[in-house]
Amino acid sequence: MATIMQTDRLTKSYGRSRGIVDVSFEIQEGEVFGFLGPNGAGKTTTMRTLMGLLRASSGSATIGGLDCWQQSTEVKKLVGYLPGEFTIDPGLRGSQIIEYLSNLRGGVDQKFVRELVERLGFDPRKKFREYSRGNKQKLGLVQAFMHKPRFFILDEPTSGLDPLNQQEFYKMVAEVHAEGRTVFLSSHILPEIEHTCDRVAIIREGRLVKIDHVSSLKDIHQHDIEIGFAGPASVAWFQNVAGVTSVTQGTSEQSLLLQVQGALTEIIQIAGQHSATSIDTHEPSLEEVFLRFYEPEQVAATPAGER
Amino acid sequence: MFRTIWSKSLREYRIPMLCWGYGLALLMVTAFTSATPLILKTYASVAPSLRFLFDPVALLTPQGYVTARYLEVLVPILLSIWTILAGARMVRGEEERGIMDVLLATPQPRTRVMLEKLLALLTALLVVALLVTLGIVGGEYTSGTAVDFGRASLTALNIILLAFFFSMLALLISQFTLSRTTAAGTASGLMILAFAFDGIGRTVSGSWVQYFSPFYYYNLNRPLLASFNDTPVAALLLLGLGLLFAASSIALFAWRDSGRPVFTWQRRQSDGKQEVEHSLQQAQRDISVRAVSLRALRSQGWSAFWWTLGAMAWCGLVVLLLPSMQAPLARALAQSPALAKLFSGSDIATNAGFLGELVFAFVPALVVIFAMTLALTWSSDLENGRLELLLSTPRSRSRMLLERFGAISLFLLLTAGLSWLTILLAALSANLSLDQGRVMAASLSMLPPALLITSLTYALAGRLRYAVILGILTAYIALAFLATFLQDLLNLPNWVVSLSIFHLYGNPVTSGMDWGAFLGMTAVTLILLIASLLQFRTADIERG
Predict the structure, then answer these.
(1) Chain B residues bordering chain A (beta-carbon distance below 8 Å)
(2) Chain B residues with CB inside 8 Å of A77's CB?
(3) Which of A154, B278, B411, B419 would bridge A185 by S-S if both were Cys, CB 3.0 to 4.6 A apart?
């Protein structure tokens, strides 16, 4: 797959305030790429810099091989953008806003606009000031999808949407994904990233801390395992096994609680040698991985067993 | 200041309260000190032509002159503009910005919330009344006329009573509208209508429309004039109506949904799909959403209409009044060197000189202020993040800025052109001889100063906040106007006066087109426009 978006040591600072620092990553054409981070981590700043709305303090960003600042007008022809929050002339009706943005973009298929309006259940008759948060978000989605862009930049796209419309949005993402188009979406809703994205980048305090496939990201966490034995169990059996970060007695003297980093092959072998009767492993969720990345650094560095 | 809703609201009023209070007090002092016997005599001689504006009562006394010239129309309208805005935004403005929900989430009854806000406005108005009273007393003292504190304070109370009436009217209207702008606009329209009814009542015998005008009841009391028979019941009527509007507004606010008007138009649900299609088709036919420039023309159209109408009305009125006012004013100037200095030695005995002093000394300032209000919407849109979505479309920033600038230029051209056309038609109907070429030159020469202010606003937008730009430009326009208008009286150095756009505008209606100044200001406009383009190309865009 070809690279459609690339940032190289992208930095944006606001005077003394931090924006983003040395953000470097690539998105391949056709993938759905998630951007995870808590409020104020730098997700929106990154996306707005890609859209040429902010001028990078240093570093560079390209979309489709075009510089996001120098050639931003050309870049915008490729992109469908949904801002995190947006406002426009409050006296304009939804239909007028769609038409206005269609005219400014050019080449919008009106039949497809109607399909989107119907699909999302958006009422275009009201004035912008009358729309609820969710309806504003629907309007944002209609205008981001209406020109069938090659690359989507969606800042917290399901924010304010009801569960039915969230599901509809996931379907829309799946469809554009199937058509080979690229989606770059930010969120702090982990199941959303888990369900929709191929790869994910995690940003903390303006710096990228991890980029990986969603599936790989799950594997790096510590498994919590409870093993039951036919007779009394000893913590010494597992203490010196590679990857085991903590061993404690379980709810009875016949069980042990282990925290394990990495593969479980050796643990299963040792448990078998001591006549284990049950092994209960807790499957990691992305949320646990996410929380681990956002713990203050000094706490995150402390072995789990010492906490 | 944050202990109660009353004190918090009063804090919000502190700047307009003090600005209006001190401003009107200063106006009163200036009005009394300018009431020289010659001025009084001159004013009394032109009064019959101005009956639409005021009743000529005791015009040969300073109190009569001040009442007729300032207190019958000018001061109450000026103060009412502020109170109408305050009334319209009292609850509707906060609902629009989403602040009211937070306030109503506290354990405070709605009636109390509104009552405290009302009391804060009343307190602010009483402070304004106190300052106006001091201004009148100060004016009487400095002009050497008899000081009467009681009459001065009753005069100030009468003014704030009318301003309170219009404020409560705007508040009541805002209960039925979704936006504060609609409420303020409707209330302002009704105020203009009321003013017109009062004027018609004065000039058309047997008329009864004035009884619908609060100005009529306001003017039934002129406490500053000892010889005038006041009608206190008229003041009580205004107070009663104001309180009735207030009570109705409180009751409606307590009853209606927060953030919604009293009556909501219910859409039919049955054929929703058809209506959606209709709405989309209607939007496709809407020319105003086809380009940024067309959108700017549409959104600023009403504002431009009113400003242009104001300029045209002033131009037409002065031309029509010229035959009756020219001779008395010329005589007054001949007898008063100080007054002649104010008119910069112009020969107002000629038609062109008269127009130069009474039209083209003021209308350019009006057009410049108009240009500033239009240009400031760019700064406001930038600051409120309204450009983010537009800039996500493949339109260059330069094009977007130039389209907005172009829309303003077109409005200004229309205003200048229609002002010229009004003078032409009024002169024809009054059978006046005017050099129409020079009138056209004077009208078109208004464009460079107005465009210069527009491009200056654009150059500052994005670098400075809206309020700062507004402050800088307002101060510059006021000082530039005063420096030009009072240059002979104040003996200002030439270099100071030459910084004024109004000085550079000159007096083309009498001396012809000053191409040097015209092209010079146009060149500065272009430089500022290029600076604003460069600035905007590298500016960060605010979030929505």
Answers:
(1) 96, 178-179, 267, 272-273, 275-277, 279-280, 282-284, 286, 288-292, 295, 299, 384-386, 388-396, 538-541, 543-544
(2) 394
(3) A154
Comparing CB atoms, the residue among A73, A127, A140 nearest residue B394 is: A73
Return the pLDDT at B49. 72
Q: pLDDT by residue (tens digit) across B238-254?
A: 999 999 999 999 999 99
Chain B residues with CB-CB distance to A74 below 8 A: 394
- For chain A, what is the domain count? 2
Task: Give contacts of A160 with chain B, Cβ < 8 Å.
Answer: none
Both A236 and A172 in one domain: the answer is: no
Same domain, A73 and A153: yes
Q: Do A209 and A296 fall within a single domain? A: no
Mean pLDDT of A15-27: 88
A152 with A54, same domain: the answer is yes
How does B21-50 read in b/e, with b if 16+ C-beta sit within 10 Å?
Answer: bebbbebbbebbebbeeebbebbbbbbeeb
- Look at B280 and A117 and tell me if their CB atoms are within 8 Å: yes
- Mutate: best of A74, A98, A101, A103, partner B, most B CBs <10 A: A103
Asked if residue A264 lies in contact with residue A223, where contact means CB atoms within 8 angstroms, the answer is yes
Of A54, A77, A90, the CB nearest to B540: A54
Closest CA to B226 of B150, B298, B162, B124: B150
**Per-residue pLDDT tens for B91-118?**
998 888 777 887 887 788 899 999 999 9
SS3 for A69?
coil
> Distance from B541 to chain A by nearest Cα, in Å?
5
Range of the domain at A265: 218-306
What CATH number does the domain containing A136 carry?
3.40.50.300
Mutation pick from A96, A123, A156 vs chain B, by most beta carbons of B within 10 Å, is A96
Same domain, yes or no, for A164 and A228? no
pLDDT in tens, B316-372: 988 988 888 788 777 777 776 666 666 665 677 888 988 988 899 889 999 999 999
CB–CB contacts below 8 A, A to B: 119
Q: What pLDDT, on the 0 to 100 scale, is given for residue B194?
A: 93
A279 and A236, same domain (yes or no): yes
Closest CA to A103 of B395, B404, B382, B388: B395
A293: CATH: 3.30.70.100
The domain boundary, picked from A181, A215, A249, lies at A215
Looking at the fold, whether A124 and A16 belong to one and the same domain comes out as yes
Last residue of a domain, one of A215, A249, A282: A215
List of chain B residues with pLDDT < 50: none
Using one digit for the tens of pLDDT, what is the confidence trace for B137-156?
A: 999 998 888 899 999 999 99
Residues A110 and A36 reside in one and the same domain: yes
Spell out a b/e string for B173-183, using b for 16 or more CB atoms within 10 Å of the CB, else e.
bbbebbbbbbb
ipTM here: 0.75
Q: Which two tokens stand for residue B158?
A: 């009468």
